[in-house]
Amino acid sequence: xxIHQTDVAIIGAGPVGLFAIFECGMMNLKCHVIDSLEMVGGxxxxxxxxxxxxxxxxxxxxxxxxxxxxxxxxxxxxxxIYHLGEQVVSLDKTEAGLxxxxxxxxxxxxxxxxxxxxxxxxxxxxxxxxxxxxxFEGTSIFYYVKNREDFRDKRLVIAGGGDxxxxxxxxxxxxxxxITVVHRRxxxxxxxxxxxxxxxxxxxxxxxxxxxxxxxxxSGKEGCLEAVVVKSLGGEIxxxxxxxxxxxxxxxxxxGPIAHWGLQLNTTHIMVDPKDCSTNTPGIFAIxxxxxxxxxxxxxxxxxxxxxxxxxxxxxxxxxxEVYHFExxxxxxxxxx
Length: 337
Ligand code: FAD
Hints:
alpha/beta, binds flavin-adenine dinucleotide, FAD/NAD(P)-binding domain, 2 domains, 4-stranded parallel beta sheet, 7-stranded mixed beta sheet
């Protein structure tokens, strides 16, 4: 597999990582951006896309999802390369003084500088504790719906009781051959109108509700699921014939390998110099929620300012002999080299 070469590898495509693409671009620095989630936006997309944010300068009120769309658009002229659904698992220095990083699926990037915008850590799905789970992941078990059509005419089991489980059950009931929803409580945690619709479809026989039951086991072979076994709190066992299992148990964040890169940490945060967001390792910078210093305010707007500080510092690090003349964006425009 070829190794991508770039000026800056940004770890994390949350709001702060996205704005850092723009700020680095304004410094003529090209970026590759890696995120363990399948979509950009970090906490804004994963946790509260429909919530309004009131403290972004210039926006009296903006939905978190809309802010992410705008940040992505603002970064577009600089043609960032995104590697989504990839966790950065290792970071080493090459003999040539470059940073070499590897992702969970084997993508390799060599960068002149590293910008960590990893928030509260890599987001990933909460996996049900089932024996043999890995054998079916990616073939019969999925934690996200990338393309609804993949599930047409399939027998689906959806596990979970929150908005994702209920909303996808409603949506996929239009195209699936059969849908069974398994939840360990009698009550769902979804929006009341969605739950009412789910119950209506259950009464009409469109969706099978198996509650209160929890996942107990899987059966099938060579990555092809044949049945999902569920168990009630009282010990009753049922077997549901199924092609696909979609467990929607929410997301967990994990600082993961970043904790082992020799960076100075304060619990789960990286200590940086607030003047330029540099870490204790030359060439590695950190911004946004993951970066800390005395009196740090964990806000998106703080992360935006840190992105600008870090981009200027990275330019000086990558091009130490270049003389830089500061210009406002009103003067320079958005220059893409
Ligand atoms: P994040 O948004 O956390 O993004 C970091 C990204 O890095 C994640 O997508 C993660 O998957 C990825 N990542 C981490 N490690 C790795 C790795 N090893 N490999 C690959 N990818 C990795 N802030 C405000 O300013 N105003 C508000 O009104 C506001 N409201 C909020 C409401 C809620 C419900 C929540 C939960 C937060 C709110 N916040 C608000 C906080 C705000 O969302 C965060 O400050 C902001 O998301 C931080 O951005 P970030 O880019 O630093 O990190």
